[in-house]
Amino acid sequence: MNAVSSIAPQPITDEEVKAALDVAVAQIRRNLPEFTYSAQNHSSVNNFYPPVANNQWTAGFWPGEIWLAFEHTGDKTFQYAAQIQVQSFLHRIENRIETDHHDMGFLYSPSCIAAWKLVGDEDGRKAALLAADQLIERYQPIGQFIQAWGRKGVAEEYRYIIDCLLNLPLLYWATEQTGDQKYRDIALIHARTTLKNSVRPDDSTYHTFYMDPETGAPVRGATKQGYADDSFWARGQAWGVAGMAFSYRYERIDEYRDTFDRLLAFYLNKLPADMVPYWDMVFSDGDNEPRDTSAASIVACGLLEMADLVGGEAADRYRDLARRMIKSLADHYAVKDPAISNGLVLHGTYSKKSPYNTCRGEGVDECVSWGDYYYMEALTRLSRSWSSYW
Ligand code: GLY
């Protein structure tokens, strides 16, 4: 497995997309016995995910992969396994097990909204609506944002993070389902707040952003998982790119599209030759730092989402870029031999500790659950006209 390639990738062909999906689906099928009644840890340990309880923010991605495998094959084995997972997600939200944070969209879109959209699973719909109710409880009118983590209203924790843009589709969906505008209104306001504060003048992004709990004024950008407050955490930029595409889908204002292009240009400019970023883009070739393959898949999905929305030459360019990114992952990073890993894509980075950030070091240079999911989603988007779970 060659993690560092100096060769610029070609666009992946349709045949290669199908072959890569077949490889991924075979791996998902092999994983079903271990992970039908268990969740998958957020990241692998020595390239193997351990089974865990359904209590992490990342638990939705594995059922999302199962749904994508179902879509690719039509095999009901995948449907039944994913519906067993839905029961676990319903139990989790009904009992509010580790749900007091903003990651309800990451949890409930690929697991339960997918179940509702694909097979009309009523419990999936019920669970996702309960998750949307939970998410809007974290909305802070003073500052107009959804608070990411921690005790609500406490100054040290009064912040949102750029990743939350991907939690918002759950709220748009909840309005569509219920006719109640409150979910959509909060999503729109939160997206606007992100647009206003999280993009720096050079078109890089802040991971987290603090607001003043008394006045609602913006206070400062910071990081949790990037190298430093002023560095360029690759996945944060990726969430920004994909988040702008989804924001544009739900509200057609030029600022989202323009910001998408600006964040994308910054990201592309920092990529090494093989189009897979180092975990923080302050690093480059020769720094001996790990990659984050998951950022590449997230950006590819953002590109394919925006391509569907805009059409024309811009869409051709976005699709071409996505095909190159996915080709690089499929050729050099995807798992082909189950003896070396039970994941789909190697060389992701969850949280790398630095002297300047506040995360715990975990999942460094490993498979990461959302990296596997978004790789599958990108391949699926390239293989068919896909109706999104988001
Ligand atoms: N949303 C948290 C992360 O990307 O690690």
From TrEMBL:
Positions annotated as active site in the UniProt record: D103 (nucleophile), D163 (proton donor)
Keyword Hydrolase: yes
Enzyme class: hydrolase
A Pfam family this chain is assigned to: Glyco_hydro_88
Top-level taxon of the source organism: Bacteria
GO biological process: polysaccharide catabolic process
InterPro entries per the UniProt record, alphabetical: 6-hairpin_glycosidase_sf (IPR008928), 6hp_glycosidase-like_sf (IPR012341), Glyco_hydro_88 (IPR010905), UG_Glycosaminoglycan_Hydrolase (IPR052369)
Enzyme Commission code: 3.2.1.180
Annotated residues for binding of substrate: D103, D163, G221, T223, R235, W239, S351, S354
Keywords in alphabetical order: Glycosidase, Hydrolase
Family indicated by similarity: Belongs to the glycosyl hydrolase 88 family.
Protein name: Unsaturated chondroitin disaccharide hydrolase
Species annotation: Aliirhizobium cellulosilyticum
